[in-house]
């Protein structure tokens, strides 16, 4: 999952020549995003959407999917299901 998200972002960058200056961010921060060491925020999603001519939400949905996948990989304590009282 991580590798595929990084590949998608890297491919977009290479095909469209998008860089840190296009997005108004620093090169180190752009590098962190490209290498999976920084998350896509709502603000970054809007910048990418505008730069790439896409509707907002695509990049942040991929980030949420990645975050959820990462959380599922970790062992976690069982939580009892609640019974609703109406």
From TrEMBL:
* Keyword DNA-binding tagged: yes
Q: Name one GO molecular function term.
A: DNA binding
The cross-references to Gene3D superfamilies, in alphabetical order and at most eight, read: lambda repressor-like DNA-binding domains (1.10.260.40)
Q: Which CDD domains does this UniProt record tie to the protein?
A: HTH_XRE
**Which InterPro entries does the entry link to?**
Cro/C1-type_HTH, Lambda_DNA-bd_dom_sf, Toxin_antidote_HigA
Going by the UniProt record, its keywords in alphabetical order are:
DNA-binding
- Where is each HTH cro/C1-type domain found? 20-59
What protein name does the entry list? Answer: Addiction module antidote protein, HigA family
Specify the species: Candidatus Methylumidiphilus alinenensis
Encoded by which gene? higA
